[in-house]
Amino acid sequence: MAGPSVSPDWRLDGKTVLVTGATSGIGRAGALAIARLGASLVVVGRSARRVDGVVRELRTIAPSAPARGMVADFSSLAAVRQLAARVKAEVPKLDVLLNNAGVFTRSRSETRDGFETQFGVNHLAPFLLTNLLLDDLAASAPSRVVVVASQVEKSGVIDFDDLQGAKDYVARRAYSQSKLANILFIDELSRRVAGRGITTISMHPGVYATRLLDAFHGWSTLKTRLLGRGEPSPNAAGDALARAAAWPELDGRAAVHLHEHQIAEPSACARDAAVAARLWTESARLVGLER
User: Fold this and answer.
1) Is 51:68 a contact under the CB 8 Å cutoff?
2) Is-catalytic flag, 175?
3) What is the DSSP letter of 120?
4) What is residue 1's predicted lDDT score, i.e. its pLDDT?
């Protein structure tokens, strides 16, 4: 799990990094680690109170690096669109978009737009947000789009006949599908932004004692917090996310995949260009974007 630390020479002074799902777990840890490299942070979460708390933390550990918070619920595409509009209006430049927000739901539920929750929040929301902010990222080139996926993508299958799990919902299968979709999205995105100066990155940050992991295994979050289960604290994930945002080795790369701290190959399914193109077309239709 432990990997090489982030070099203090990988400075992000003058850069603006937007992190979604930044109020807890690995998202919060990543935001704090990125702030220590000098970046201005835009932190996004569902709770205004928790967003404000993280902003106060950031201003304490990196007082010279501006930090602001924005509230958005990724179970609503309208909220994603509102977030993008606010970023365009209030953030002069965007250098890194770090899509981290994600959920795991043991029982099937739907977003406000009628999508299966894991597919909607984990894939469609970052797909839409990234597309809405592409011009801003290109204007700040060299820039980066990062999507936090998971090694469970290896067991994922994109079921185009039942993307929403309406016929047969299995929680872990739906989660694996959404994480495979993250990597396929980055793969197709890399082709679509070629020549625009945007580095595209997917990553498995590692396995940490987060609420999402508790839900995935059906564990009691209280018991995990009190007794532990052997996984490191999500605070240890900060360097993995900061590496994705700042590692110079990644400059100019297309569809690079990180496994914790190393460049690695995702599964063969995650590198299927035909599936990636089809998923993009279907995702664009579902969120109402031009293909």
Assistant:
1) no
2) yes
3) I
4) 47
Residue 213 has pLDDT above 50, yes or no: no
- Residue 204: phi and psi, rounded to 5, are -105, 110
Distance CA 206, CA 230 (A): 13
SS3 45: strand
The mean pLDDT of the chain is: 90
Q: On the CB side of 47, how many CA atoms lie within 13 Å of its CA?
A: 7
Is the separation of the CB atoms in 146 and 190 below 8 Å? no
Q: Which residue in the list 115, 119, 127, 175 is annotated as catalytic?
A: 175
The model carries a pTM of: 0.90
The full DSSP string for 149-198 is --GGGGG----TT-TT-SSS--HHHHHHHHHHHHHHHHHHHHHHTTTTTE
CB of 39 closer than 8 Å to CB of 245: yes
Q: What stretches of the chain adopt beta strand conformation (E)?
A: 16-20, 40-45, 67-71, 96-99, 143-148, 198-204, 256-259, 262-264
Residue-range domain boundaries for the chain: 16-287
Quick one: tokens of 168? 């047969």
Interatomic CA distance for residues 222 and 241, integer angstroms: 26
Domain 16-287 matching CATH 3.40.50.720: the answer reads yes
**Residue whose entry in the numeric block shows the structure tokens 């047969």:** 168
Q: Note the pLDDT tens digit of each residue in 244-258.
A: 999 999 998 999 999
Separation CA 276–CA 268 (nearest Å): 12
The distance from CA 83 to its chain's CA centroid, rounded to whole angstroms, is: 15
